[in-house]
Structure formats: C-alpha cells, structure tokens
Amino acid sequence: MTLSSRLALAMVLLVVVACCLVGACAYYFLTGVSLAALASAALAGAAIAMVVALALAVAIARSLSRPLRQLTAAARALPRGQPMVLPADGCREIADLAAAFADMSARLGTRLALLEQTVQSISDPVLVIDVNEKIVVANAAAKRLMGGDLSIIVRSNPFRYFLADGVTRAAPEDSPMTRALHGERIDDLEFVVESKATGVRETVAATARPLRDVVGHLCGAVALVRNVTEQKRAYQALIDSEQMAQSIVDSALDAFVQTDETCVILDWSPNAEALMGWTRAEAVGRGVDELVFPESQRTVHRQWVDHFLSEASADATGGRYEAPLLHKNGREFFAEVSLTALRRGDRFIINAFVRDITAKRAAEEQLFQAQKMESVGQLTGGIAHDFNNMLTVITGTIEILAEGVQDNPALAGIVKMIDDAANRAAQLTANLLAFARRQPLQPVETDVNVLVGEVVQLLSPTLGRQLEIETVFDEQGWPALVDRSQLSSALVNLAINGRDAMPDGGRLMLRTNNVSFDAHEAAANGLGHGDYVVIEIADTGAGIPAGIRERIFEPFFSTKQFGTGSGLGLSMVFGFVKQSGGNIVVLSEEGKGTTFRIYLPKANSGPSASVAAVGDEELRGGTETILCVEDDDFVRDLVTVRLRNLGYAVISAPNGAAALELVNAGTAFDLLFTDIVMPGNMNGRQLAEKVAGLRQPLRVLYTSGNTFGVLSSDGGLGEGVLLLTKPYRRAELARMVRLGLERPLDHVGDPIPTPYSVQEDVERFLKESPPKG
Fold first, then answer.
1. Is residue 218 helix, strand or coil?
2. Exposed, middle or buried: residue 55 (CB in 10 Å: 0-12, 13-18, 19+)?
C-alpha cells in the first residue's frame, strides 16, 4: 500500500467516525433525550473518535518512521564502509528510496574499490592524513614504509628527517606531509629519512597536496613519496665518473686531444696547450691535421685514422703510433699518440693522448750506445785482467834482471827499455780498466795544491782564452785522503760546468784552504767533526735558479740543452765526494755566479799512501807468515820468491778450495794475500769470508788485475778493504803487505772501515731507473 492510500484510508475512517457521531446525536435529539444526556453522548462519541484517530495516526507514523530510520542508518553506514541494511517493508515510495540507496551504494562501492585498487597498485608510498595528522589512507608501499603500524600519527613517525644534504636535521613539522596539512603545495621535495630502529637512510622525493572539503576548509593532506636512493647513487656515480675522467685528463702527464671522426678538435687539455703551444680556444673547432702535423705527414695521418676507424668495433678500440708534430712556434718534436675510438650512434669520437718522446728516442739511442760500450768494457776488462797477470810477471822479472845487470851498462839500457815498455803497457791496461769502469776507488794522501795546479795546467788550453783562470792556494794546506784520479775528474767536470755557465767569458777561480769543525758545525755541513781540506771552484756565470738548486745533484737532472750532457756529471762528483768521506756544497745566486765547495778529510799523519820513489822504507819486510792464494802459476811463483826475499814465511795455494783446506787443517798465518778472480766456485772475497768465520781477527790483502765488482757492487773497494792492483812493483808489494799487517783494527777485530759511500745508492738508482727519456 502506498503512502497516499494509507492517508486516504485514515481520512475515510475519520469521516465514518464523525458521521456515526452525528447520527447518534440526531437520534438522541429526535427521541427526546434530554440536552444533558445529548451532551454526554456527544462527548463520549468525540472521545471515541479522537481515540480512533490517534490510534490511526500512531499506526501510520510507525509504518512510515521505521523504514525511514533504517534508511538513515544505512546512509550513515555508507561512508564508514559498513554494510547497508535497507528496510524490507514499508510503502512503495520508501521501497523505491531504498532501491535508489542500494544502487548508489553499489556504484559508490565499485568506485571506492577501483580507487582502492588504484592506490594499492602504486609502487610508491601513498598516505592520506586527517586534520589531526592521523593516517586515514595508506597503500601497501606506505604500510611497508611505516612498518605496518598505521595507528601512529605523522608527527611521531619512526623516522628522523634530514635535508637533501643528509647532514642538516629537519624537524618533523617541516616534513612535506605536515607542510601540506598547513596548505602548502609540495612538488618533488628531496630529503633524507633515517629509520630510528635500524639507522638505515634513504633519499626520497615527496609530492604533497592539502585536502579541502566542499566549502574549502582543510580536512587533511595526501602525499606521494618516491624512493630515489638508487637514482641518486647512480647519478652521483655518473657525476663522480665524469669528474674522475676529467681529473685524469687534466692531471695526466700526457696531452689529451679529443676529435670527431673528421679530425675536428672537440677538447684540448691544459697539457696539450703546454705541449703544442695552442690555447684551447685556438684549437677547438680546428682540424688537428692542419694544426699540429707537418704538411708532409697530414695525408699519412688521415689515412692512418681512416684505416683505424674502419677496423674499430662497437666497443672502445685502441691504437698507437709515433709521428713528428709541430709546436705553434714551428719547432718540430717527435710524439707518441695513443688513440681510443668510441662509437656514438653512427659516428665516432676519438680520444688521443700525446706524449713528447723526443728525449726518449735520443735516450734510447744513447742507451743502445752505452750497452755497446758496456759490452766492449766487459771485453776490455777481461783482457786487462789477463794482461795484468802477465805484466806482473814481466815487471817482476825486469826488476830482477835490472839488479843482475846493473854493472853492465849496455844490458842495463836494454832492461830499461823493456821496463819503460812494461810501464806503458801497464798504463794502457789502467786506461782500459778506467774506460770499462772496473777500477775501485783508491784514496791516497794527496797534496791538493799540487793536484789543483796540475788540473789548471791541463784545462788552460781547453777552456778557451775568453776565460780567466785564477788560483789561490793555502800555503799551509793539509794533505787530503782522496783518490787522485777521481778528484782530478771531479775538478775537470766542475770547471767545464763553470765554462758552460760563462759562454761570453768570465773568471774561474780555484781556491784551497783548511777548516776544522766541531760537532755542531760539522752537522750543519753534513760532515763528521774533524779536520777537512776545502777546494772551491767559483765562476762568474749566470748562476743557478733557486727552484732547481736542490736538484742539481740528482742523477739525470740537467739544465743543458738536450744532447749536450748526460745529467750525471754532478751526481758522479757528489757520489765520489761522499764516498771519500767528505761533502759538496753549492752556493749560487742568479746573475752572480756559482761556487762549489768540496770538503775532503784530512790525511792522518803517517806513511804516505801515495806512490813515491822507491826507498828503503817501502822495501821494509818482516818475519810474519803469509798465506798466498794465486791461480796463475807464474804470478804465484814470482810473488812467493819476492815475499821470501823480504823475510816472510810463505804458504801458497793455487785456488780458494786448497787454501780453505790449509785453514781447516790448522795452518797458522798472519796475513791472507789472495787474488780476487779465480777459477772454481770460490773467488777471493768468498774465501776471505769463509776464513773469517774460522779465524778472528783476520787480516786480508787482495790483489787483482780487475775485480769485476766482486769486492763491492758499486765498483769500490768496500769498507776496510786493501787492494794491490796488478801489475805491481816490488816496492808496492812490500808497502801494502806491511800496511795489511800493521793497520789498526776495531774492537771486534775488523779493519776500521773507510768513510761512508753513496755510490751504492747511485748505482741502485741507475739500475732501477735506467734512462728512458
């Protein structure tokens, strides 16, 4: 029944009741009922009618309100997502209204389900909060981000906030969500969040919007958060890679040039500017062929690049070639070019590193020449060794012959001629050994004034008339303990350097004097305290710039034009002076000349170590026992005779093994006199080391025509080593034997070592860093 039918029925019932009341009143009136009774009857009828009307009204109201209440409850449940209970009875209008509500609920549910699926399908976290900062919507990604606990409010979330730098702390109210809740629109704001529980940091980018109701009041906020940690890392890695590549290019010792496949320059490093003279602005955009290649090489270079690119694959392809290049000023130099081709689409980018190898090529030629000379030196050293053995016998027998024919002038003259020839042969072998660098350092007591005078006489004709040479000698100059030939070479080297510093002429002064240092002064000059002889070589040349003054003694460092010097001269002087127990100091100022000051140790008083005329003192012998080890039969026989003539007892052995057997047998001796180079598995140095392990203290005198580096790796004698070089005369033999028997020993029985040497350091440097360019 419809609502209108129910109302019509109620009205009919009221009319019927009313008519009944009217009829009852008329009846009572016609039958003569009294007025009081009529009034009572009317009131009773009215009361009955009112009761019936009220009952009908209540019934109708109830039939109408129940389904309406059900519709109201369903409407309230709809936004909360609760099930809707629609009325099953009621009028047709309410049924239609319930059906409309049901259809609207279904449609709204479909849309909400679609929206929910959409939000849940978003891989980035999506959050919606209300005005109380309570999370009301969160997709699965947001739930994972929040750890599944959605009961928390944003202000107390489980993260710490940092600005994009990852260092500066940000308050929670500065978060994008909170700012959006205050009406801001946030787009791709990057910041760092750190989990309070794990400490893990992530970089995120958030987009947030405020939410408003239909009248424009803020009712919440929504935010979309993207984790950009990996993107940031990848981007930073790309930036770092580009910066590293650019840093490598900028800091590379080689010049870097980048061109396209037509050889047009795209990039030009600072070292390219330094190497080829063109600035980057001048070079970029120009063809590299015309810019740096000689005209005769341009076609060849173009053909080489075309061939190189034709063989290039999709991956980076490299190549290398050497070619002459031109500096901006027109100077030509030789360069090594290393290319890498990188494909970019259907084209190529060519990266080239360019290195100046002009000096390297010249050094390789010098090294090749040095290797040839080293081979010749090995050969001459071996020849000189054998020849010196023969000369030892020859010079020894000449002295015996001279004693036998001294009463026969004619024969004495012939012996003198043979002796002179032997001396010239000995000098020849000495020169061969010097050429082969096989002579160890032999310090002797030397009059420095005399030696400097001899050097000046030698240099005067060769230095040129434009130079004025002046000498100032200390008349009370002390003798120095130094190798005469090495000191002469050092002075010649320094004098030539001085000449080169004065191409237009000047003055070269050589001065000598004495100096005594206490411990403090000695340390300031790099020496031990004591007495020293000083030699100064001063020129009035251009001087040495302060920037390179500390490097002039470095091996291979040279300021001369390439090809005019090896860069080893001053380093050899430095090593020789250091090996001699002294030091060398340079004093210089640009435009005011240079002074080299050499300090050499003063020779101790005692028998002179220099070669002098034969005297009775040099022929002094003794009665000690000498173990003589010599592999050459003739030399061994001659030395045995000579030592016995000097009064010594001699025990001879042909090699190291035989000598060691004598030592093991308990044979007593005072001095081991041994050749250095001997056949078999034991040389003289190894023999001395084995014997020293059995006998302490051990006195050793070595002899050899060529040590072949056995005594010391740097070609010197080594610490505390005595060497009698072949060929030797009777006087030299006598003097060195006495020196070996009488020289002082230290507290452990070893000979007192010679001064410190840096020769080994220089030799090691040359081996580890041979000249390559």
1. strand
2. exposed
Which segments in the chain show pLDDT lower than 50?
A: 153, 314, 373, 431, 434-438, 556, 562-567, 605-618, 713-716, 747-749, 752-773
Q: What is the predicted pLDDT for the residue at 21?
A: 61
Q: Mark whether 645 and 716 lie in a shared domain.
A: yes
Do 31 and 136 sit in the same domain of this protein?
no
The CATH number linked to 469 is 3.30.565.10
Q: Residue 739 belongs to what domain range?
A: 625-765
Cis before 697? omega within 30 = yes
**632: nearest Cα among 727, 742, 750:** 727
Distances in Å between the alpha carbon of 446 and those of 337, 478, 611, 735, 743? 55, 9, 10, 17, 19
- Coil, strand or helix: which one is 714? coil
Structure tokens at 278: 């063109």
- Asked whether residue 722 is assigned to any structural domain, the reply reads yes
Query: Is the domain of 594 the same as that of 633?
Result: no
> Of 234, 268, 284, which closes a domain?
234
Listing DSSP states for 256-303 in one string gives: EEEEETT-BEEEE-HHHHHHH---HHHHTTSBHHHHHS-HHHHHHHHH
User: Using an 8 Å Cβ cutoff, are 497 and 595 in contact?
Assistant: no
Q: For 287-312, what is each residue's pLDDT tens digit?
A: 888 888 888 888 888 888 887 887 76
Cα distances (Å, whole numbers) of residue 764 to 39, 714, 748? 150, 9, 30
Same domain membership, residue 490 and residue 450: yes
Please give the pLDDT value at position 628. 93
Domain count of the chain? 5
HSE-up (13 A, CA, CB side) for residue 207: 6
Give the per-residue pLDDT at 378: 66
Q: In this structure, is residue 698 part of a structural domain? A: yes
Of 312, 337, 303, 305, which Cα lies nearest the Cα of 323? 337
Q: Which of 510, 505, 441, 427 is nearest to 472 (CA)?
A: 510
Chain centroid to CA 339: 24
Residues in the chain: 773
Structure tokens at 312: 């290039």
**In sequence order, what are the beta bridge partners of 652?**
628
pLDDT at 148: 58
In angstroms, what CA-CA distances link 689 with 38, 490, 672, 696, 719? 166, 34, 11, 11, 14
Taking residue 364's Cβ as centre, other Cβ atoms within 10 Å add up to: 14
Q: What is the pLDDT of residue 658?
A: 92
User: CB burial class (10 A; 0-12, 13-18, 19+) of residue 151?
Assistant: exposed
DSSP one-letter code for 287: B
In this structure, the answer to whether residues 272 and 159 fall within a common structural domain is: no
Contact 653, 659 (CB under 8 A): yes
For residue 750, the model assigns a pLDDT of 56
Q: How many H helices and E strands in the chain? A: 21, 24
pLDDT reported for residue 659:
92
The encoded tokens of residue 243 equal 């910066």
Distances (CA, A) of 747 to 20, 57, 696, 701: 159, 140, 11, 20
pLDDT at position 650 is 93
pLDDT tens per residue, range 251-270: 667 888 888 888 898 888 88
Is the Cβ–Cβ distance between 737 and 673 less than 8 Å?
A: yes
Q: How remote is the C-alpha of 405 from its chain's centroid?
A: 75
